[in-house]
Amino acid sequence: MGPEGIHPDLRDVLRKSNIDLSVITGKQAGVEVMNGYWYKYPHAAITTDCVIFGYDKSGLSVLLIKRGIQPFEGCWAIPGGFMRLDESADECARRELQEETGLDTAFIEQFHTFTDIGRDPRERVITIAYFALVNKTEVRAGDDAAEAQWFPIGQLPNLAFDHAEILAAAHQSLKEKIHFEPIGFELLPEVFTMPELQNLYEAILGVKFDRRNFYRKMMNLGLLDAVDDGIVRNSPRIPINYRFNKEKYDEMKEKHKFRIEF
Amino acid sequence: MGPEGIHPDLRDVLRKSNIDLSVITGKQAGVEVMNGYWYKYPHAAITTDCVIFGYDKSGLSVLLIKRGIQPFEGCWAIPGGFMRLDESADECARRELQEETGLDTAFIEQFHTFTDIGRDPRERVITIAYFALVNKTEVRAGDDAAEAQWFPIGQLPNLAFDHAEILAAAHQSLKEKIHFEPIGFELLPEVFTMPELQNLYEAILGVKFDRRNFYRKMMNLGLLDAVDDGIVRNSPRIPINYRFNKEKYDEMKEKHKFRIEF
DNA sequence: CTTATTAGTGTTAATTCTACGCAAAGTTAG
DNA sequence: CTAACTTTGCGTAGAATTAACACTAATAAG
């Protein structure tokens, strides 16, 4: 399966013709021959798709792009693209995210690889799916001309390929992960208030919490630092600003004590 | 990226020679040409690897095979192989498992896709990794001549490629999943006793439980049915045989009430 | 002035967890 | 034969956690 070397018959033909043999080099992936690559066995193509989650007071939403080319032209789709041979899937997903949002440090996580045979009508394509959690306020429009738009989860348009399935799986994965890792914070600005945090959790998990119990639970976890913003807060009417404390989280994670669940 | 059609120069050369052009057909993946496939862009190869977990009273172990070919010839490795274009990754993993163990109904689950650039010295290969939970007593030797052997987790040999990393990730994934899904039962014979079940959990999670609390927890979950095996059990000295109740599990899963944790 | 919002503390009952004790009745080792 | 051990099953007392709601203070918004 590796670089097979060029097929003897083909080599012969090429040698007899005046095509430059110097382009025929044993590359890491297959044999490069005349602007193309030759393999003894058929190879599927590999893409990464990145479900980008954002959050604001209206709830949880995902960033979709309108496809400019066939197939599914004009259809909404999860951002993604073909993996290059000089990058890992993580790097590929991060590159896609950067192109689409301008962000290069967001939280991303691989959650599943989709391999159904007919999922792309053109050829056999498998996709390594990621989800990203971004702070919507930091996102700027994508570089490319592709139309991009946020859709509230629950008001999604029809999606290209098997992207509806991928998106549903991403949402499910997010729900499951949020119990045991403080990834919810990735969706908020660096500084946030307690009601904002609670709304976020309620939006993702689809449940309601008692405000006071939520407050106590969060404070007892010790993950929140009040921000000293100089504002005199003699009135509780002004929400307190908090910041996530990463050190305490790392410490807590080792002891397997972390859990946010109601 | 799709089927690119055959390169005009190459087509010309082939036409001038006496090589049969009929083999050049537009296939789903790339263009088939003279026992090979030609693509405009380089493609990585795709494999699945399947970490097969087994369990007996000596603890948790994994099935490894000794590689008969280069690279890493003579080295132990996780069973796996190249994905064909007419099968999904799930089917590929299940096929590998069947070839290695003779089992065709075991529990398998995809947990991560490994894509590091240098992970295979031959060419770019990504692997979709699965773990399987099998009942060791049902496993028969693999069909192929390849040497296969069970290794207790914790006494693993040096492994080929990045298989040590894959195996560690599989074990971690198993540990996390076992809290919320009754996949532990997949490792046991259909009928088992309470001490066997407890030993299994202790072996996987690496902790000790109080026998009585474990008993009560399991019974309260309602997932175990005592087996009516006709043996008169007027003595507690004879362990009771249990069987896993799948219906109750499905019912419980919907209500999100399932958890095994101590 | 009224209503709504936010922070924070209290309280209380219900539930769950943890760590044991104990009895019955055999099996196994010596 | 005896002593030690195994397994089932119930009990239980204290600690910890959860869930549900009361209440105050302060003030912004209308």
Radius of gyration of chain A, in Å, reads 24 Å
Number of helices of chain A: 6
Give the class of chain A from helix and strand content and strand pairing: alpha+beta
Biggest β-sheet strands, sense, barrel of chain A = 7 strands, mixed
Overall pLDDT of chain A, averaged? 81
Q: What is the H/E order of chain A?
A: HEEEEEEEHEEEHEHHEEH
Topology, number of strands of chain A? 13
Fraction in beta strands of chain A: 25-35%
Tell the overall outline of chain A: elongated
List keywords for this structure.
262 residues, 13 strands, three-stranded antiparallel beta sheet, 25% strand, seven-stranded mixed beta sheet, disordered N terminus, DNA-binding, alpha+beta, homodimer
